[in-house]
Structure formats: structure tokens, C-alpha cells
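Take a record:
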Amino acid sequence: MQKSIEALRHSLTLDYDSARSMPAEFYTSEKLLEVEKDKLFTSQWLCLGRIQQIPKPGDYYATEVMGEPLIVVRTNMQTISVLSNVCRHRGSILVRDSGNTDTFTCPYHSWSYNIDGSLRRAPLIIDRPDFEPKKCRLPAFSSEVWGGFIYVNLDGTAPTLASQLEGLSNLIKNYHMSDMVELHSEESTWDTNWKCLTENFMEGYHLSTVHRKTLHPITPTHLCEHFPAGQGYFGYFSVFPDDLPQRGKFHPDLTTKERQRSVMFAIPPGHVAGVAGHKVTYLYIQPDTVDTVRVKRGIAFADPAISNDSLENAVDLFEQTMAEDKIQLANLRQGLHSRSVTTAPLAPANFEGNVLDFYQYLARHIL
């Protein structure tokens, strides 16, 4: 792990013209992964889903982040909460599905809770001097909504997400991403290190090679434009060719320039996305081991009444590109375990600048 720590520290002294890739250990060290889980995935903001998944009061879904079982629930039209999905009695999981309810009832001994987490009923347990039902409730985790996405901070120590994303908010405000509706989602495990997947999504250097038939005609490498990173984000513009026809419905607030590009952004450690006028595509990333990562991916559209053909075409393009990336990242995983791996120069800022941005983000939060 020491090589990785030294390389991260050195990355803080580099600019885009002198940036180099990391040593293989950066992607294969189990000790480093444990540090990342503690200092990043427990202590920073993680994306859990879209607000449209729970549109009505009482709507909820169960999920898990870094081994922590959670319930994401809309308690009223203005409030979304993230609660512990563990009964306060003897630790059973409360729910494993999604739905609408006014009560979460434990399947083990029927303890029940209101959707704000307060205890509703503990059967047959009355008049105990060591137990105050009014003080018993499901723990609530720090949560925020940004751009229609729901985030959680497990240990409650991260600065507010909104304050970290001010610059990014200004870049994407005219896209009205919060109004886009999720119409496609998938989940799978990929054979790669989580950082490799983040870097891959956030650099345009590979677009015209790995995605020659899928993305190159739409977002070729040579048109990528890096933009300055902020406290809690980094990204680039994926610019469309001038002769590419407009795809799908877009918000009238968008300028001509904004309609001709996607804003590719990362909100590390576990969220990467690309928003265009007609849709936003995104991945929620959570490491399992140094060589495997759980990937939830989805697409939300500006036009919820998009035709079936257009929806199918958009999903096919997205899933084809994901399949192409998945193959390449599996190859990368194998190569990074070789004794012959070395470091090399990164491409100019427009093409791999976000890789250095990512290194420097990690250095600021790990060192």
C-alpha cells in the first residue's frame, strides 16, 4: 500500500501536462481498499437512487450500502429519509422489497415502526423501567437530494453535498435533471477494481477506440473538453459533432451550446453520470473486493412519454457501451496483476484530465 500512498501524495504536486498513471498496487491492494471503504464510502456522500422511485408519501425501497441495510422512504411530499433497516429489538432485517406503507413491521417478533422511524408497537413489552418506547426509533442517516438523486452519508461527518457541488449545479441547471424520469435500470457485478470503472467512465480518451461503432459517431474523443474540478466533483464536456441531429425532447432553457454536448460528471466516490438534453445516464458504484464492483446503472429521460422505439434504442445504445466497457475493464483487471505493469504519461487534460482530478480527490480524502 505504501507505493500507492506515495503516488497519491505525489499527484498533488502534478499538473495535467506532467500527470502519470498509478502503480498497479493502487488497484490491487486489499489494505488500500479497506482504507477507501472507511475514509470514502463510509464518510462521503453515496448515491442511492432517484426521487421518482418514491413519488408518494409512504413509498419506500430497501437497499444496502457497504453492508449497512437501509430503507429509503418518502415521509411526506417534501421529505425523503434514509432509515436503518434493522429492528431495534434483536436486529432482524425489516423489509427486503419496495412498496407503499404507513408501518414497517418486523417479520420476526412484530415490532412495528412509523415511516418516520418512531416505534409504533412492541408486542407484550409493557411497563419496563429500562425501556422507553417513545425514545426507541430506527436510526436516521444524513441524506440529501441533488439533481433528482438521493444521497446518504453513513457516518454523518461529510460537509453538505450542496455546498460541494455549487459549480457543477451551475453547469447542469438548464438541463433540469431533477425532472427527468427513470425508465431503465439494471444491476450487476463487474470484474474490475472500482477505481478503474470510475476512471473509465470519466475519460474520453477511449471513446473512439473501445466504442468505435457506438459512441464515436456521437461523442468522439477529439471533441472532449475538460472543465475545472470542484470540491466534490470533476468532469468534462462530451461534445457532439455539428452535423449530429438533435435527439429527443429537451428543456427550452438549454442554450444551443448546451444542446450540443453532454456534461460528464463524477460525484466521488460512487456516482458517475452524463447528462444531455434528452436524458441522463448514471452508475452507482460500490466495491466488493479489489477485483469486483457492484454496479447499478440507469437512464432517466426528459420526456416520460418517450416512444417505445426511442426508449428501446436509447437502452440498447447504453447497454452496448456498458458491455464494451465491461470487457475492456476485465482485461485491465487481469493486466494490473502482472509484474511488468509500470506507470506512464496520461493524455492531455481534455482526454484524461479527470484521471488526475480523481487521484487528487482521493489524495485529499485518504492521506
In short: The longest helix spans residues 308-336. The radius of gyration is 22 Å. The chain has a mean pLDDT of 97.
